[in-house]
Amino acid sequence: MRVQLTVNGEARACDTKGSESLLFALRDYLHLTGSKGACEQGECGSCSVLLDGELVCACLVMAVDAHGSEVVTVEGLGGPELHPVQKALIDAGGVQCGFCTPGFVVAAAALLDENPAPSSDEMREALAGNICRCTGYGAILRGLETLVEGR
Amino acid sequence: MEVIHPVDLDEAVGALAAYPEATLLAGGTDLMVEVNFDLIRPDVVVALRRLDDIQDVSRRRIGAGVTFRRLESGDHNALAQLARTIGSPQIRAAGTIGGNIGTASPAGDSLPFLAALDAEIELHSTSGTRRVRWDDFFTGVKRTARRPDELITAAVLPEDLPDFQEFAKIGQRSAMVISIVSACVLRWRDGRTRVALGSVGPTPIRARRAEAMVSDETDPGPAALEEFARLVSQEVSPITDHRGTGEYRRHASGVLARRLLERCLSS
Ligand SMILES: Cc1cc2nc3c(=O)[nH]c(=O)nc-3n(C[C@H](O)[C@H](O)[C@H](O)COP(=O)(O)OP(=O)(O)OC[C@H]3O[C@@H](n4cnc5c(N)ncnc54)[C@H](O)[C@@H]3O)c2cc1C
Ligand code: FES
Ligand code: FES
Questions:
Q1: Cβ separation of B176 and A128 shorter than 8 Å?
Q2: Is the predicted ipTM greater than 0.95, yes or no?
Q3: Whether the predicted model's global pTM rises above the 0.95 cut
Q4: Contact map slice: B 199-228 vs A, CB within 8 A
Q5: Handedness of CA B228, B232, B234, B235 (dihedral sign)
Q6: Is A125 an 8 Å CB contact of chain B?
Q7: Separation of alpha carbons A93 and A89, rounded Å
Q8: Which residue has a Cα nearest atom 32 of ligand 1?
Q9: Assigned CATH class of B1-48
Q10: Per-residue model confidence as pLDDT tens digits over A82-141
């Protein structure tokens, strides 16, 4: 089926074979490999994207259901410069293997859009759907706290 | 695979009448897990995410298409409490109450709330609308009384709403957990009390002897609360699985129900 959608502000289209996920369509048809796939069951958050403004797991969206929708992936954040969240994670050492990073960046950016000054508890709640096996979360949270304090 | 994006209810139930084997897709948070693991391969999908007719919430009617994110704040304390415990922000942004009802998992967190309130599930098809009370609707583990040509359109709550309502669940940690036991307790100022439990039987369980006993107590003291917890534990029928033993679930049911009743009494 022909799926037409807006990705990071650009009109894009692809042909799906059946019930593939939006994550699959983004990575394999549209070659946007920033969003990662690990669990494919909504548990890890590495596939986090914005779908019509809502933070969702792209692995749980059927690609055909994103027809006509607006999607923002990690590639769409920031511009020529890194997004402040990306910079904050780098500065704090919040990136190790990096597999979880795109999901954390999208989720944290979505949080800061909604709540520019979240408390540490609010950060933890907002990132509860993102799993990191390397950092132990401390450096990720410190990076975001530093970013929020510096604003 | 064919996909239908109905613009209104008539079109949605028309599609179900034309394709009785169609798969309904709401937020996809249950369905896509099965699709990704190749457990189901839908031929026809009726996609509900943008069906406006099932998006409204009022005090007594909760549209099937309403996401848990929207239910996190609202009139019903227990509903907001349970919505906040569902999965993660990503899951709550997509997952709907209609999907929770449609899946009818024993661990579905909206089920104890619906059971405690004696809610009715509203079903719509080309032959009309019917309402089925929760205990006739949930018929077993992931089994319901919904016919394939019917769409769940809403959960309908009774007129006589409780003065106090509390929900809580027990899991291994505080986020992203499937309930080991969940409970919803309702209390009216005249003493009437209801308690429903989830994850301790194939469908939600109302602890009716515990309800009857504590409804007669206008100001239950420690002994009455103890008896309430004991009766609740007796009335559940939990199984042992990888998340917890039957014995633990039985004990936890009583503790949780008692704690929630105490919260109702002190609010
Ligand atoms: C990581 C993760 C964590 C989760 N945590 C929780 C949790 O804490 N508590 C909990 O209760 N659940 C949890 N779930 C399960 C799931 O999110 C919920 O059951 C959710 O409510 C499903 O809603 P949905 O809109 O995504 O349904 P979908 O997946 O779209 O559909 C679910 C089922 O219901 C049917 N259906 C959907 N809408 C209708 C309708 N209007 N009429 C008839 N049938 C319909 C579908 O055909 C399908 O069979 C979790 C899931 C994941 C992946
Ligand atoms: S790949 Fe989507 S949540 Fe893990
Ligand atoms: S940096 Fe490796 S999983 Fe998070």
A1: yes
A2: yes
A3: yes
A4: none
A5: positive
A6: yes
A7: 6
A8: B99
A9: alpha beta
A10: 999 999 999 999 999 999 999 999 999 999 999 999 999 999 999 999 999 999 999 999
